[in-house]
Amino acid sequence: MLNRLKIIITILLIAFAINSVTSQNNTKTLIHAHNDYLQNIPFWNAFSNGATSIEIDVHLKNNKLYVAHTQNEIDTSRTLETLYLKPLQTAMQMKLSNINTLQLMIDVKSNAHKTLNKIIKTLKLYPAIINHKNISIIISGNRPNPKLYNNYPNFIWFDHQDLNQKLSTESLNKVAMVSLDFKKYSDWNGKGRLTHEDYTNVAAIISKAKKLNKPFRFWGTPDSKTAWKAFIDLGVNVINTDLPFQCVSYTKTLANRIYNATTITSKVYKPHFKYDGKQQPVKNIILMIGDGNGLTQISSAALANGGQLSLTQLKNIGLLKTQSADDFTTDSAAAATALATGTKTNNRAIGTDPYGKTIKNITEILNEKGYSTGIITTDWVTGATPASFYAHQKDRSQTSLIANNLITSKLNVFIAGGGSIFRRKSVNKTFKMVHNINAIATEKSDRVGLFLSGQNLPSVMQGRDNILANATKNSLAFFEKKEKPFFLMVEAAKIDSFGHANDTNGIITETIDFDKAITEALKFADKNPDTLVLITADHETSGFSIPHGNLKTHSVEGDFTTHDHTGTMVPIFAYGPQSNMFNGVYENNDVFHKILKCILKN
Q1: Cα(15)–Cα(29) distance, rounded to whole angstroms?
Q2: Which of 453, 397, 405, 399 is nearest to 430 (CA)?
Q3: CATH value of 284-600 in 2.60.120.200, 3.40.50.1820, 3.40.720.10, 3.40.190.10
Q4: Residues near 306 by Cβ (< 8 Å), separated by ≥ 6?
Q5: What would the DSSP string read from start to end of 517-581?
Q6: Which among 87, 347, 450, 488 could bridge 43 via Cys, Cβ 3.0 to 4.6 Å?
Q7: Which sequence spans correspond to the domains of the chain?
Q8: What is the mean pLDDT of the chain?
Q9: What CATH number should be reported for the domain whose range is 2-253?
Q10: Neighbours of 327 (CB within 10 A)
């Protein structure tokens, strides 16, 4: 039985403790496992899930220390030693986790003096625990008079629970933290927000408690993500929870999920709408794809950008269903192929149908109609989304073959990363290769290419600057000088990358950057009344949500359900003549057919 228990303990710690405890200890907030003794595996449940403070209710009965909430609930097999001290000693001996911070808060339920004396006597049997520099033993509940605190050993600390009780400097030095009953200040249930009156009361008592220069804790608190976030924002140092795994997971990822206002902003452009929705010929198509850019991604960027984007000025909006031919949740290859060819296909397929047969894409069809065509992306040029507009391969991983397809394509412009793939390929025989974005606008050649990098492009946060907007602006200038109708696909690829990484900052900055490119497309459309601009996504990534934020400070908290794509619908915005054709709810492959219908009306 003992060996079996050791195996269970080992599995628990390997699975949770090394990562969770280390991660949690890197934050200033301690997670307090309230009522831990009520869990199926006391101590291990809290410790392995990363809690850094553990509550233990203790009763002295028949000279033994039992762990129970009330005396009537005492089980003689559940003692302070069996449930906590021995397991902690085992964890230390097995060296399964580094203990950087750990509080054992012993809540004394019986006589203060007798119980505390027994606790001290018992603790002395575990010198490794009481002498550990990162382990604190804090006495809460029934405590001796503060005047007597200094009579107790240096490994014993106390929880102060009465701000009206004045403590001497000596007594205060023995106080480890301050704890108060939350219900005395608010009846909030952790849903919605604190009322203004309650917020003022709660903030005032925290401020008063902080004057003692000790960590602060509320007990009797609501136990939810909303509550945890509110208490962290209010400056509560020790968060009470009966859900240690969920609370630790939430708090340790919070820094990556908070966007705070940066210098990256999009100046909102308000279109004039003179030609929007007009039933007149469409000559030029600008299709803009935010990879992984769902409605929440757009919402978060708008809120962080002062409440609006150039994108959110548009009036004609639809929703696309993104399921692929063989899966509920699409990948970028199948989704982009649907947009580019009008055919639903299998995940990973580039420009081929579910049976591997080549399908003509929109750039090939329009080239035959005398159109110029081009693609811009912040991804590799062989990435799944851009590749779907010029290549035909059964699998997106066939990078070299996709690169060959670019060389034999009919594209007139490409701007992308991934130039290293073409070191041994004669791309310059097909395209006039230039070395900066501004050269695109003035280039007289019929076909021009630009590699923005040999590998991946940096993100906006890494200093990519306004490359996407400038590439869009210069490509449109290139097409305008050709005096031919054109089709241009523009992809903001890294919204998806940061979605996979569950990084709120990255999602928002890349979406704001995408909006700058959208602005250039809208400006062009306003000057060229025969231009239709479409803005959509291939799919949503990460199950992104934005539960909290602050409009005044442009702060947004993101949360995630997955590191992968989701099956949710994505919005499509349209601006220009016949833009109302794109309203409604429909399959993503219908976008292709609607585009051709707009053009064939000419």
Answers
A1: 22
A2: 405
A3: 3.40.720.10
A4: 265, 268, 554
A5: HHHHHHHHHHH-TTEEEEEE-S-EES--EEEEEETTTTEEEEE-S-SSEE---EEEEEESTTGGG
A6: 87
A7: 2-253, 284-600
A8: 93
A9: 3.20.20.190
A10: 14
What are the catalytic residues? 332
Residue whose tokens read 């005032």: 204
Tens digits of per-residue pLDDT, 507-545? 999 999 999 999 999 999 999 999 999 999 999 999 999
Give residue for tokens 């619908």.
569
Of residues 96 and 404, which shows the higher confidence score? Answer: 404
In sequence order, which residues have a C-beta less than 8 Å from that of residue 11 and are 6 or more positions away?
A: none
Closest-CA residue to 300 (of 290, 291, 287, 309) = 309
Residue 28 in this model has a pLDDT that exceeds 90: no
Contact yes or no for 288/518 (Cβ under 8 A): yes
**304 three-class SS:** helix
Tell me the pLDDT band of 166, cut-offs 50, 70 and 90. very high
User: What residues are designated binding site for Mg(2+)?
Assistant: 291, 385, 491
pLDDT at 25: 35
The pLDDT of 377-388, averaged and rounded, is 98
pLDDT value of residue 27: 42
Give the separation between CA 416 and CA 345, rounded to whole angstroms. Answer: 25
How many H-runs (helices) and E-runs (strands) does the chain carry?
Answer: 22, 24
Is pLDDT above 50 for 13?
no
Its pTM stands at 0.87
pLDDT category at 273 given cuts 50, 70, 90 is very high
Question: Tokens 């952790």, residue?
Answer: 190
- How big is the chain, counted in residues? 602
Give the tokens for residue 29: 């907030």
- 451-484, pLDDT tens digit by residue? 999 999 999 999 999 999 999 999 999 999 998 9
Three-state secondary structure call for residue 139: strand
Tokens of 582: 């794109």
Binding residues, by number, are 291, 385, 491, 496, 500, 538-539
Query: Considering the chain, what percentage of its residues have pLDDT values greater than 70?
Result: 95
Binding site for Zn(2+): residue ranges? Answer: 291, 496, 500, 538-539
